[in-house]
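Usage

Read records sequentially. Each one opens with the input sequence:
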Amino acid sequence: MNMIPEKNNITGLVVKSIGGLYTVESPDGIYECVPRGIFRKEGRSPCVGDRVSFSEDRVITDILPRRNHIIRPPLANMDQLIFVVSVCEPAPNLLLLDKFIAIAEYKNIRPVVVLTKVDLDKSDNIFSIYKKAGIDIAVVDYSDSSSVENIKSMLAGKISAFTGNSGVGKSTLLNAIDSSLGLQTGEISKKLGRGRHTTRHAELYRLDNGGYIADTPGFSTFETNKYDIIRKEELSSCFTEFADYSDNCRFSDCSHTKEKDCAVISAVNEGIIPASRHESYCQMYEEAKAIKEWEL
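and closes with the structure output:
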């Protein structure tokens, strides 16, 4: 239960967390703070993106209500999740991307897809899939500075997290958006076919347009359930392109996977809903069916 902030407390934004020490940005300065001991007993702790109250002796006394929260890396109050996807090296994994887009929708965080390495391969197919699905998508081409400016404008006044498989170029993109960040970049391992993890903790970086960005560790197919678990009954609402059709199915409890007279499947067959998106949905639905109640 949240406490009422004390009169002399200061409110600020947690922008960094390392080893139990929290960097909090407030209107009158930046402070290094520690949390109250009772938080551990209550099974909660501040995380990057939290709005918190802290005392004059730099003790965090309260964590203000969150709009959303992801577990790994721990981030709160995100406005948007930027999914950085390379068109090659490493090859895009659309199922994994669709899983994370669904989680973003489930948590009411705006998903944005950014395609990189378009100088090495074509991006038209992936671009058309997500454009048709109604998901915000952009292409970054470092030979065209306006493409970087376009992404930077998306970040103005918002808290955004950048994520994607290691090696897709997250840090390179962030450095292009703001060269003062100086984030470490890692080359793709030819042997493993994926990048080395170069980001060790979550941290918000302030941009000159009022936005904050978080560079986060790369994710893998084994970590998706650490973000959240979506029940099968809730899954279709996380594929927003289904919304115009799901109420027109013959059966009110239609799963949109194989039923007769399913309006969603008809839209897929007509090319209105991208086939790859529906394939991802069907696979995720089967995985959700296999989840035991105790896992939730």
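Summary fields computed downstream for this record:
- The first strand starts at residue 10 and ends at 18.
- The CA atoms of residues 60 and 269 lie 55 Å apart.
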